[in-house]
Prior knowledge:
The structure is a homotetramer of 207-residue chains. With 207 residues, chain A is α/β, with parallel strands linked by helices. Chain A has a single domain (2-205), classed as Aminopeptidase. Chain A has six helices and eight strands. Chain A has helices at 18-27, 47-59, 117-126, 141-155, 171-174, 186-203; strands at residues 2-8, 35-41, 63-69, 76-79, 81-83, 110-112, 131-134, 161-167. In chain A, the strands form two sheets. In chain A, strands 2-1-3-8-4-7 form a six-stranded mixed beta sheet, with helices on both faces. In chain A, strand 1 (2-8), helix 1 and strand 2 form a beta-alpha-beta unit. The first copy, chain A, is globular. Chains in contact: A-B, A-C, A-D, B-C, B-D, C-D. At the A-B interface, helix 3 and helix 5 of A face helix 3 and helix 5 of B.
Amino acid sequence: MKLLLTGFEPFGGSKINPSEQVVYKLADREIAGVDMTTVILPVERFAGPDTLIRTYISAQPDVVLCLGEAGTNTTIAVERVAINLLDFLISDNGGHLITDKPIITDGPPAYFATLPVREIVNVLNEKGIPAQISHSAGTFLCNQVMYEMLHYIHKHQLSTSAGFIHLPQLPQQVAGKLPLRPSMSLELMVQGVTAVIETLAASVITP
Amino acid sequence: MKLLLTGFEPFGGSKINPSEQVVYKLADREIAGVDMTTVILPVERFAGPDTLIRTYISAQPDVVLCLGEAGTNTTIAVERVAINLLDFLISDNGGHLITDKPIITDGPPAYFATLPVREIVNVLNEKGIPAQISHSAGTFLCNQVMYEMLHYIHKHQLSTSAGFIHLPQLPQQVAGKLPLRPSMSLELMVQGVTAVIETLAASVITP
Amino acid sequence: MKLLLTGFEPFGGSKINPSEQVVYKLADREIAGVDMTTVILPVERFAGPDTLIRTYISAQPDVVLCLGEAGTNTTIAVERVAINLLDFLISDNGGHLITDKPIITDGPPAYFATLPVREIVNVLNEKGIPAQISHSAGTFLCNQVMYEMLHYIHKHQLSTSAGFIHLPQLPQQVAGKLPLRPSMSLELMVQGVTAVIETLAASVITP
Amino acid sequence: MKLLLTGFEPFGGSKINPSEQVVYKLADREIAGVDMTTVILPVERFAGPDTLIRTYISAQPDVVLCLGEAGTNTTIAVERVAINLLDFLISDNGGHLITDKPIITDGPPAYFATLPVREIVNVLNEKGIPAQISHSAGTFLCNQVMYEMLHYIHKHQLSTSAGFIHLPQLPQQVAGKLPLRPSMSLELMVQGVTAVIETLAASVITP
């Protein structure tokens, strides 16, 4: 399986993004049967999806798995659906603060992930790694890149599977901060995303 | 520093107690300058404190650090105070379900931990391990053994320092369960409790 | 403005549904410029949407506002989008427990509410009635009736506006229950939904 | 029954304190068999308890019920215990920011409320008004005035019953704010505190 794995750079004043950390860790590891390309996406309305699509075109993966950070999550959240909406609560790293605009004018209202989300969540929970299916990827960059990737694949009638996973914050991001927030250690996230990739490698039939 | 470190057996239908796991891990490790005795306490109204006091008498530690599990915590919670109250929401492992009774009739209403709780929490948060001071250790066995240990030390005018730390649940305890709950990985807990012990070893002046 | 206002019957073992209570209260009140039809929908995979669509056809409203209950919400949540998915965590009142099925095979992935969701939320918060935009209406009956109503309107190229609002639980539904959950009083909900209807009456241009 | 009912002025930048609002409402109402004195306490390390004790001395009540605000509570929380500790997370209205100091040097570690806390919580929950027993009144002014009142009564060997109740925030305090927080309407709080006072009037034997 040729996999494109993406994370995001830090945003919102933070110096760390767990999705970036996980991608760095996995870029150094071998997973049997997986030929992996990785890229860190800018948290910016234009550069984020552009970097993703350009890397996709050059890597020609069978599967795209994008990772991002969800501030108050307790679990690894496998997103079911991306909606055609930009509604930023904070500015992106380019200073854009967009309210109630479509990602793609005249694009369809939503795309469902084409990964086996139920199976992924079951595999993680059976391994003791807290996971859930999520039905909202938000209205910021995470939802946007998921939507734009699925839109590109759909528009060009490609067979690539694609989806998005939100990670909780890392312990060092929440330590000493109020209000208290849940976190997950990097090792557990890496273990979790590795299990996701193995599940994908087993379930995705590659020609 | 002679340290007595205690955990609790599982209770309430669970097969795991993070405090027990952490004690098992630390029993196998060397911490410089620390002579450690460990014991797992029964979650039972009488056997719990009895096991603690008997082990205390035989070990004669400088410091007692008791660990327990707090179902919905996001952080390592260093307890400031134990109150003279038993009020169980669930039965203990001996089938006792006690409501609104003092732990020790005519005992004082409360004891403050005699550990440097502020310093411990600061050390943990500075290391990126989420921690907080807590002002309620509950009204179950955790609060009871903290109260009884401090009462014994006070009654016999001993110089031992003592306190209690609540740990979150382990990832495998919350995986696949609703409502979603936060968790902390065993390795981070072990790292945290090790840092606590090192802080105690540095701050407690032993003759 | 001709308004169709709907609530749901109780479900999941509960004897009360706040959306039903609010509809009963509003059915007895006059709101200037509003000609209101009300109906309580069964929480059942087939009878729920059927009752809605049949009432819609007979009432021919300008606006459809459906209300439902969201177990752990703190605010009045105005739903932005309904997705083409049935994924029940509990059985509906007909005993159906459906996993990962589309509401309408070959239906579009989602419909956006055609109500002014941003304006509604702003009006409520300005009045001191806690409100938020929500980007997931769940995957149970609430999401289903929102999706089916918008699908019907779209399919028949009608000009009706439609949307869905989730209400928190009532105080008496959470009193004495663990884990502790937020609630909202019936009077505040009625005040909130009244403000929503007045906002709709002012913003919807009726021929 | 002669009752002293107290609330607090707003603090921490807020313009409202629900406890003040509830006291104002109840000051205007008649409760059968209750002779009520009310006072609003300053949120200030010295003036808070001084105002309470002076009003107590002049009113000579049978029962003291103090009310305060708890930022993230979902229920009416009847406090079981006050501890001898000042540890402010924010400055009081006099600009004092006190860390880890006793309220009264050489005072006992804690006082239990001398109100029937269990009965009060049961009465509220049976009436459908969400309530809980709380085992921490915090370490700010609320805990302080509860401690100082009980200390004064104890020191002077008086027979007055006293305790503290924390109220959630009002809907208008949380509307439009992030993170989302629970709230309770003023009418429900007033209904709840009235039920508490009726319970006290029925349970307190007055000479």
